[in-house]
Amino acid sequence: MQRTNFGEMVCSIARTLDVIGEPWSPLILRDVWVGMRRFDELQADLKISRKVLTERLGHLVDHGVLERRPYDNRPRYEYHLTEKGAELVDLLMVMKGWGDKWLAGAAGPPVLYRHHACGEIADVDLHCTHCDKPMHAADVDILPGPGARAGY
Amino acid sequence: MQRTNFGEMVCSIARTLDVIGEPWSPLILRDVWVGMRRFDELQADLKISRKVLTERLGHLVDHGVLERRPYDNRPRYEYHLTEKGAELVDLLMVMKGWGDKWLAGAAGPPVLYRHHACGEIADVDLHCTHCDKPMHAADVDILPGPGARAGY
DNA sequence: CAGGCAGGGTTCCCTTACAGAACTCCATCT
DNA sequence: AGATGGAGTTCTGTAAGGGAACCCTGCCTG
């Protein structure tokens, strides 16, 4: 947990970082997304400290991104993405695209996505929820919204 | 810098985290994107430690996300997004959308985007680069790519 | 029915990194 | 000549990550 509390800031980016901004959290989410659900499995794959893994899983569960489910009569648990968590995977897909483009080098992308709708290998691109056309950094004006704490 | 070096991992998500995964980096990028370019301006807005701000700016410049430009005959510098950096803003826009939906509560979003193409208030959604249809976590198969270090 | 085992954590110690205030440097402005 | 403003550096305290060892609980086996 970074000492400065991003969750209190009046900014959706900062608030999102409060949920998944800690080191390892996005990678934990990635692993759960691709089907790794158990403590030891995550620990072995990421080689993360068990202490930190415990903390991160707890944090993600507390924020409703993961769900901790018993899967046996013994005290055994699996972690699953909630709907809230599954929507965070959008973020991972965009990160993957950027990393593929700018950091993968000559070896190319470590992983590919095949889109069910068209069956092709593809990546994600950002489109406008209103007109469906592409929408990126240079294509928007930034305006204050209703949650922009009026009064100071 | 988190001690575990994500940049060495065979994963574009981990590599991207190596560039902007440290605390504050996304918020610095956000501020530069909306036009804050100078050290003191960033420091005052974020209330980040000057030491950490120095480290983060250096890291982002080293990774080609920001460019440090003199703007005076005196030793004065401004930070600007490179093309590589501007494409990272995609990530911020997705974070903003998720935070708006899941964390903003009754107050609503602190900030709105107006899309130049249609002039409407809108958010981003992920579409397929191949068929242009929506593409999210549940819509893809994950396959090994050429960069998936063969041999072990 | 005692011992072992597997899953899922805790505990402990060490080191690094963040927070925050104070200090420095340098070129102009007055 | 001294003040000012921008852009950092330095220093000290505290908290968080790394990593190894340990613990607990409920089956499974001999």
Automatic annotation (TrEMBL), chains A, B:
Keywords from UniProt, A to Z, are:
DNA-binding, Transcription, Transcription regulation
Please give the Gene3D superfamilies that the UniProt record associates with this protein: Winged helix-like DNA-binding domain superfamily/Winged helix DNA-binding domain (1.10.10.10)
Cite the HTH hxlR-type domain residue spans from the record.
11-107
What name does the UniProt record give this protein? Answer: HxlR family transcriptional regulator
The coiled-coil segments of this chain are none
Q: Say yes or no: keyword Protein transport present.
A: no
The organism's place on the tree of life at top rank: Bacteria
**One example GO MF annotation:** DNA binding
Per the UniProt record, the source organism is Kribbella antiqua
Q: Which Pfam families match?
A: HxlR (PF01638)
